[in-house]
Structure formats: C-alpha cells, structure tokens
C-alpha cells in the first residue's frame, strides 16, 4: 500500500499553464527553465531581457515575472533528494 501524503509534504503544485506554484512561499516558478525553452545558456542581461518579454506577453497570464532572489533560488535545492532526468537517470 502506498504511503499517505499529507498536505505539508506537497511543496509544489502544477497549475497546468506552464507554471508551478509553491503555496507555502507565495511563489510561482516557470515549469521549464530558460535553458529548457531556448536550448542556450543566458547571461544576466539576456535573462533580464527574456523576463521583460515574458512580462510583455503576459506569460501564463501574469506580467510581473522576475528573477528569483538568491535565497529563493537556493530554496529549490534539497541535498536530501536526488536529481533525476526524464528517464530516471541520476544527474550530478
């Protein structure tokens, strides 16, 4: 039998419109990062411009996208969870 999952264990909720919601922090994240979407790494300036374009187009219905703070970005990493790719292979 599968272990019951409590509400506290569900940190992220997929909204279905390209975003992931983190209710406990009041944050929304793009489901796919810019590298996944553009197939290239971006500089800080390119990322800033990309975000301006997201806001102009109202990505997922919102026009207030921004880069995460250092603390917000760090909160995504959990050393207790392994990182696996689409096929279930460990990604270092």
From TrEMBL:
Residues 19-84 form the Lcl C-terminal domain. InterPro entries: Lcl_C. Pfam families: Lcl_C (PF07603). This is Lcl C-terminal domain-containing protein. It comes from marine metagenome.
């Amino acid at each position: 039998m599968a272990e019951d999952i409590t509400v506290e264990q569900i940190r992220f909720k997929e909204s279905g419109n390209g975003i992931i919601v983190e209710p406990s922090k009041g944050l929304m994240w793009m489901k796919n990062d810019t590298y996944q979407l553009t197939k290239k790494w971006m500089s800080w300036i390119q990322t800033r411009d990309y975000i301006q374009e997201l806001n102009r187009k109202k990505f997922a219905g919102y026009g207030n996208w921004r880069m995460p703070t250092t603390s917000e970005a760090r909160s995504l990493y959990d050393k207790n969870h392994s990182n696996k790719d689409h096929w279930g292979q460990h990604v270092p």
